[in-house]
User: Fold these one by one.
Assistant:
Number 1:
Amino acid sequence: MMRLPWFEFRAPRSLDEAARILAGEGPNATLIAGGTDLLPNMKRRQMAPKVLVSLRHVAELRRNGVAVGAGITLSEIVRKPALPRGLRQAAAQVATVHLRNMGTIGGNLCLDTRCNYYNQNYEWRKAIDFCLKKDGDICWVATASKRCVAMSSTDCAPALLALDAHVKLRSASGEREIALADLYNNDGIDYLRRRPDEILSEVRFANAPSTYWKLRRRGAFDFPVLGVGAAMIGGAARLALGAMASRPFLVDRANDFLRGKELTDEVIEEAGRLAASRAKPMDNADLDLYWRKDVTAAFVGYALRELRGDDMRETRLRTARYQPA
């Protein structure tokens, strides 16, 4: 049985109190919201914070309206028809109902990067001499790499990137707002530009037509091995990819191409090709990496056709358990 390491627990009632605790505890402290990712990581000894700062009772993180508080659960997002369809689709495909009832939008955006050589128990990792992401000095996926290539597995980030999302970060020294795209680094270890003393408090996004398509082996529970977010912003389609690098990212070349164009079959095909050219999967997740890159164009096509207004229900049913031939 995997047990949690010892830790102290703090339960602030306001953002200011939580920010003061973070500032006072320094690197010893880690934030916890739903805990659906953090607690398993602690059991595997990938993380061992001395202090957990709970955000569960911070009412400011549960705001609704023009902005969504980072403490809103994924299940609550699924149940809010006023929110963009793409965001609700992404939230609905995270894990299982039980985990969505606990997991929050802020937690999903800050989800730790994943890798077959990292997301194992301590004894397994010790047997192969650990990896670059935790306790070792070599990346077992790309042994010549100086950088960890663990991949981003957040579902909500690609959907929100397509919706031109911005996030607010609160600390004891003040507050700042940045584009969601600027929250991420393409580095499996240093994957967030959020400072250790900052709390992701709020998410703002365009309420625009949008969709999200996910590739995984099973029809439920699994992390994505490809996520495609698409939205219509200012009359132009906008694409973002997830699970194709150590960060979710906007597909700039495809988005530049789509600007000012009607979503004809020819335009959609070219956008899919451009998006696939930017997909850089590594051999650190489920399914063959070359096949994952190849089907990127198809999934971009599905997303853009749904955004165009095509009825894609049968395709969604068919790809819910999408398998390589």
Number 2:
Amino acid sequence: MKTTRSHTTLLVLSLLALGSCMTVQRPHRPLSPPPEEVSIKPGINADFLGEEVDVARWVNTFETEAREIAVQKQAIVASMKLRRGQDVADVGAGTGLFLEPLADAVGVGGKVYALDIAPAFVERLKERASSEGLQQVEPRLTRPRSVDLPDFSLDAALVCDTYHHFEYPQHVLFSLYDALRPSGKLYVVDFERIPGESREWVLEHVRAGKEAVKKEILAAGFVFEEELDVPGMHENYVLRFRRP
């Protein structure tokens, strides 16, 4: 009789535990990106995809001290609080502005995937990683619709002044979601776009403001954590999201 009561008690406790697990609410995420997604801005990346890209010109453009994120690159990476041995992606790595600070942050036991859709930039990234001895950096050519990384391969991803260049943002976000490990972080740095306040170039070039960007990323299943206060950042914001 004692054995029967014991078994009954265990069964009841198991059912209660199962019921508790079943009521856990998980952030909703569609199973796949919308198949009907069309280009947000056709030709937005045409300058980077031609047969004869002047890489030196873009180095001077992207890495000048007149560019806020170039001056504050160390502070941006520091705000990510990366740890030694972690795997991180620089999505839209361009000419390699963040290669060294990201490589330093994860150390030789980590990995930095330097991703770009422009073949000329990827060649530049390979040359830079080799010449600077950054063995943990792996440049990769990706597609406009995907970061092309294996599932659960990342602890964090940085999208710095690149989100407004995503021609198919939902597809890219879904691929990033899959590439991140559970609780992996997504950091998005982009221009504040405020009519009447932002520079005319920003208003013309950047398609969406901060709140619209947040909504798009939440729609891909990410959880918004916070806007980071990075010293020296005035024209750009830094948002941190998490994959559930």
